[in-house]
Structure to design on (238 residues):
């Protein structure tokens, strides 16, 4: 069986000039990610509402809605507010641009002509963060399913593809995996709850160390699950 190919992340590049878009594509092509073009702030916002992006590279000087206005609009929307933005500007830009960019929530700032290695390095930082957050979110969802006794689509079918009945949370904790009914059920369920609690705590710590509102919100949800597991363990021990 061939290994699963990692899903490519989307990178949005926004510039009103064709030559600048071509240059960005040439520099970022070696990252082997999905590059999406936008020629205006309005087009960028539409693209971000259609799909998820790991990072946005946004030119500041554009006709109509400029980069600052576009970035501010991105940060106002719940769906896109956590997407990191790298602002791009020319060498003649006023130093106040930097302060203005950070004030509206931009994650970084680069001056054209930019160094290709530096640009790829900065983008890679946000790609790694994006992958980490997706992995942690997937782990949290797996643990939530384990806690409530749900199964993933792959687990819901038997070897021949026939559906198997979903196991409830009570069945998962109370029914032993073989032997006489009831033998070792309490010990098995106690060990399982302890394992779930430990894994939840590890994920929560990783999320607390990560940056971004999305990571903090997910960590709070994990903490709630930890408390729920703790209450369940107390009820079973009494």
């Amino acid at each position: 069986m061939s290994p699963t190919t990692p899903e490519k992340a989307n990178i949005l590049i926004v510039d009103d000039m064709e030559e600048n878009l071509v240059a960005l594509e040439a520099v970022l092509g070696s990252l082997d990610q999905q590059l999406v073009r936008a020629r205006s702030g309005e087009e960028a916002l539409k693209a971000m509402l259609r799909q998820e992006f790991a990072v946005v590279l946004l030119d500041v000087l554009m006709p109509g809605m400029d980069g600052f206005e576009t970035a501010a609009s991105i940060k106002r929307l719940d769906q896109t507010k956590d997407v990191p933005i790298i602002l791009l500007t020319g060498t003649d830009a006023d130093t106040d641009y930097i302060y203005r960019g950070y004030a509206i929530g931009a994650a970084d700032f680069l001056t054209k002509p930019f160094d290709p290695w530096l640009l790829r390095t900065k983008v890679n930082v946000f790609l790694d963060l994006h992958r980490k957050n997706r992995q942690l979110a997937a782990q949290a969802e797996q643990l939530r399913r384990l806690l409530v006794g749900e199964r993933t689509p792959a687990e819901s079918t038997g070897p021949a593809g026939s559906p198997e009945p979903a196991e409830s949370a009570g069945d998962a904790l109370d029914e032993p995996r073989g032997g006489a009914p009831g033998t070792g059920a309490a010990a098995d369920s106690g060990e399982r709850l302890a394992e779930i609690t430990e894994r939840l705590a590890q994920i929560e710590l990783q999320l607390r160390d990560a940056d971004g509102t999305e990571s903090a919100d997910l960590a709070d949800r994990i903490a709630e699950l930890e408390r729920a597991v703790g209450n369940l363990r107390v009820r079973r021990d009494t």
Q: What stands out?
A: The beta strands are 10-14, 34-38, 55-59, 85-89, 108-111.
